[in-house]
Amino acid sequence: MNKDKIIYIDIDKIQVNPSNPVNHPRHDIDRMVGILDDYGCRPPILVKTMDDGSNQLVDGELRLLAGQQSTKLTQLPTINCNDWTEEQILAYSVISRNTAQWQGFEEQKLDDLLNQLKDTDFPMDMLGFDEMPNFDSDNQGESVDDFEADDTYTKKITAPIYEPKNEKPSLSELCNQDKTDSLIDEIRSSNIPKDEQQFLIESAKRHTVFNYQLIADYYAHSNKETQDLMEKSALVIIDFKKAIENGYVKLSEEIAQQYLKDYPDDET
C-alpha cells in the first residue's frame, strides 16, 4: 500500500492539533479562503489517524481553517502520516513553518513576474504580500523635498490602462457580490448581538470583487457628475494628482516628518 496515497476527507472530520504553535492571523485565513475558492486545494494536507478513528491535522492548518470557511469546498486532499511518531509530528509543525523562511527571491525574476501580472485582471492581493515589493532603487538617498519636487510619488503609481468599448455595461456587471451577500445572509441569521452583526456586515463588503475593465467602460459612457463621483471613489483614476487630493494616495505631514526623523541625512 502506498503510504503517500492522496485521500479526500470531509473537512468537518479533520481536527486541528491543539499542540500546534503556529498562529494564523484573521487576514491570512481570509486570503487563503479566496485562494481555495479560486484554485481549490491542490497540495495535500498531512493528517494522522488517531486511536478513536478521528483524523488529526499534522500540517496544513491554514488550508484547513480556510477550508472550514470556504463556500466551495467540502473535502480536502490528505496524506496519512501514521508512520510518524508523536515527537516527529510535533517537530514537523515547527519545521514546516521555518522552511518557508529559508527561501528568498531572485529580485529581478520576481519583479518581472509581478510586472506581467499587474497588467492583467489577476487580484494582486492574492499573492500574499502585505506590501508589494519594490526593487527600484533609483530614488534611494533622495529627501522628501526631492520627491515632491520631481513628483516621484505620482510617477511611481502604476495603474492598468483600459481602452473603453463602445457599449455601456449594466451596473450588475461592474462587481460580483455573491460572496458578500452569502456572508451577510449568514451574519444576519446568526444569534450574535446586533452591533456585532452590523460590524461584520460592513467587513463582509470587502469581499465584493470589482471588474475595473467594465467600470472603465461604464465611466466612459456616464455623465460628468457620475464621472466625478467615480473618480472621488477611486474607481477610476484619470488624474493621479487629483487622486492624491481625494485621498486615494496620501502622504501626510506626519509621515513626512517621521521620514525626516528616521533619515535625518536626507533632509535638505
Can you walk through the features of this model?
By secondary structure, the chain is of the alpha/beta class. The chain folds into three domains: 6-102, Conserved hypothetical protein from pyrococcus furiosus pfu- 392566-001, ParB domain (Alpha-Beta Complex); 107-135, no CATH class; 138-266, no CATH class. It has helices spanning 26-39, 61-69, 86-102, 107-118, 144-150, 152-156, 178-188, 194-204, 212-220, 224-232, 240-245, 253-262, and strands at residues 6-10, 14-15, 45-49, 55-59, 75-80, 175-176, 209-210. The strands form two sheets. It has a five-stranded mixed sheet with strand order 1-5-3-4-2. A hairpin with a 5-residue loop joins strand 3 and strand 4 (55-59). Helix 1 crosses helix 2 and helix 7 (178-188) packs antiparallel against helix 8 (194-204). The chain starts with 5 loop residues before the first strand and ends in a 6-residue tail after the last helix.
